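Question (not urgent): is this output format expected?
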Amino acid sequence: MSLEQHVNPKVRYQQQVDNSKAYVLPFIAVHTEIGKQTNVLEVGTGEGGVLKPFLDKGAFCVGVDLNDIRIVLAREYLADELEQGQVVLQTKNIYDDDFKAQYLGFFDVIILKDVIEHVPEQESFIPYLATLLAPGGQIFFGFPPWYMPFGGHQQLCHNKWASKLPWYHILPRPMYHSILKWAGESEGTIQELLEIYDTRISIERFERIIRRSGLQILKRQAYLINPIYRYKFGLKPRKQWKPLTWLPFFRNFVTTCMYYSVGAK
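Got this back:
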């Protein structure tokens, strides 16, 4: 059964705002002071809630998403900032030539919150993001490791048990597909979940891509309880016990969220 934030965009927007203000912005601000001189890009901006606290600090923000419906909502929720010219919201692929020409080396901060696990060809995508950074800039990544209990985003399922059953997303793809069909999920939901299956990312794979991209990890935080769960489920966020973060592979199963700040060497 879908959660309220999956069907109510206003609730989803407010959760984005609250989580960004309490956790995302402070994490980013360790390495980048956020103010009127800061240029921020969010890839996969959705309803724009993550950008709101940055806008409140005076930053100039660009939000892009491939889903036009969500950009329409973002323009509604951020109407004042849009009218003032403080934010640009576009249905846009950042690979487009006009986007790259306009924003090459422009952004002090690039944000991907719960996005990188949806992106294909991450090995080429992450280095491309770095070309949009200004000198000294950083890229923020927040994502659920693939092997965590709901790393397949199966909470999107409409079937009650299918949305609450952990870890079955790591079964072989044909078996996973069959279970989703047996649960009566729509072709659209199944396709979305299988796309996440195909682009899945673990802690180890992410960090390997960062190293091979010639980038460095500026800051990293593992969470036992994802900060967004405070707003979704009323659960108190908890950082991961540090010794567990040193255990390759196993740490993916017990870590619900990773935050990273990444920059040039």
